[in-house]
Write a sequence for this structure.
């Protein structure tokens, strides 16, 4: 009931804002029509920008939920998954899904949207390929049941209303900000109302999540539902912190572009350490969270945390067989279309840099500049620890940029000896003053020396001004 009142309140605010915009335009047009000089003069300069702002505001307030992305799964290609989904729909009394889409992230969701020029809403179940390659059949049943629980008749339309109301406010702020036309009363209303809306919607969203957990436990068992929660959190972390970072640097070790989704067919995202498990359960539910903490969800399920047991076959293998590889290959092709050119460019750039480093390393008696370039490449290709002594060697030979780089790396370690090296770089080359002052200011702020940081910023500003004046002269 509290959220309902907040939503109605928000709709009234939006209607009031739009009414004020329309009234302002009507007043100006009336001034032109009645030939009142002052109003007419204002109208000449204000009407067109105000009409644009009003149209943008109107467009922002009528938000349409877009169709989900992902790779559409035809019923003929995923018959077993569709049958499983239909079975769960009947078991929990949820309306049937119209389509299933396979996404590339470690996620699952139930999306309701209205296609253009159609009155009936469509329902799509989104499943990430990583979910299919990591969960067991029982755990996947729990995940699908959890998501389909959001399709209950009451929650379905209500959730869409909540989503559109929140999106309308964010879109209104964005539309007005883009035209630099946000009135003060709208700005303060957004700052006062939107946080209240977020808190109210978060509270209701958490209750819906707990209800969906209970439905999942009824379909697949509380243990499977609990294990699925752990694997989801740990698997998402594994993807973000291990899998995708390795894909991003694969140009350094592979001659051909990677197949990130095919690699998920044999990855070990299901492996969870005791330390990770402890971290997952360390969080607590906060007022603005849309999902309860794992600790709270497990308490409601009356289950104890445990490391997920190994499985012989993933749910994707059981449902698709060899077709799972076909799905992964389709996602790989989409990834290559988006990232293939960039990957090839990074690969060529890496090879050029590695060749340049090899040439510089082979020089028996390098000049200070050659030492500096070698250190830069070592820092980019290997690590800063190996680059530091090379920078220091060049700095000892009076190379200003090398002195700045060595000082930067030392200050990153909170080693105060880097201050003298940065200062020496500025003394040798005035053009390095802005970058050097920024480095020093960051260090001084990290060590709670605010006055010293501000002095560095003032020095950088003076140097930049002098350089501009010198260019004009």
């Amino acid at each position: 009931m509290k959220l309902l009142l907040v939503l109605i309140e928000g709709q009234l605010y939006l209607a009031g804002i739009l009414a004020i915009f329309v009234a302002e335009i009507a007043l100006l047009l009336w001034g032109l029509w009645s030939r009142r000089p002052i109003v007419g003069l204002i109208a000449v300069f204000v009407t067109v920008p105000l009409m644009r702002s009003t149209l943008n505001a109107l467009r922002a307030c009528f938000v349409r939920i877009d169709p989900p992305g992902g790779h559409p799964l035809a019923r003929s290609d995923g018959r077993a998954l569709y049958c499983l989904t239909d079975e769960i729909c009947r078991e929990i009394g949820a309306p049937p899904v119209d389509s299933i889409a396979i996404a590339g992230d470690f996620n699952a969701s139930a999306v309701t949207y209205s296609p253009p020029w159609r009155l009936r809403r469509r329902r799509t179940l989104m499943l990430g390929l990583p979910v299919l390659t990591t969960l067991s059949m029982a755990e996947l049943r729990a995940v699908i049941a959890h998501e389909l629980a959001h399709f209950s008749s009451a929650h379905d339309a209500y959730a869409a209303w909540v989503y559109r109301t929140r999106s309308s406010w964010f879109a209104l702020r964005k539309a007005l900000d883009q035209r630099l036309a946000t009135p003060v009363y709208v700005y303060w209303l957004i700052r006062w109302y939107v946080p209240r809306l977020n808190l109210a919607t978060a509270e209701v969203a958490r209750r819906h999540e707990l209800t969906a957990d209970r439905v999942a436990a009824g379909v697949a068992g509380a243990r499977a539902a609990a294990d699925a929660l752990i694997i989801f959190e740990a698997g998402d972390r594994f993807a973000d912190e291990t899998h995708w970072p390795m894909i991003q640097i694969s140009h350094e070790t592979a001659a051909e572009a990677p197949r990130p989704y095919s690699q998920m067919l044999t990855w070990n995202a299901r492996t969870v350490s005791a330390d990770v498990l402890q971290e997952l359960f360390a969080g607590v539910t906060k007022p603005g969270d849309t999902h309860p903490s794992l600790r709270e969800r497990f308490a409601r399920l009356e289950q104890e945390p445990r490391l997920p047991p190994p499985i012989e076959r993933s749910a994707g293998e059981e449902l698709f067989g060899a077709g799972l590889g076909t799905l992964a290959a389709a996602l790989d092709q989409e990834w290559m279309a988006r990232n293939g050119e960039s990957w090839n460019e990074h690969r060529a750039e890496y090879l050029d840099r590695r060749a340049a480093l090899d040439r510089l390393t082979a020089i028996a008696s390098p000049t200070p500049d050659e030492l500096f370039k070698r250190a830069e490449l070592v820092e980019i290709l290997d690590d800063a620890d190996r680059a530091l002594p090379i920078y220091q060697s060049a700095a000892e030979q009076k190379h200003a940029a090398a002195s700045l780089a060595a000082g930067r790396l030392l200050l990153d370690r909170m080693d105060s000896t880097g201050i003298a090296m940065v200062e020496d770089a500025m003394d040798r080359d005035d053009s390095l003053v802005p970058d050097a002052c920024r480095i020093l200011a960051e260090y001084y702020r990290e060590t709670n020396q605010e006055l010293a940081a501000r002095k560095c910023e003032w020095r950088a500003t003076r140097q930049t001004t002098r350089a501009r004046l010198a260019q004009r002269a």
About this structure: The mean pLDDT is 84.
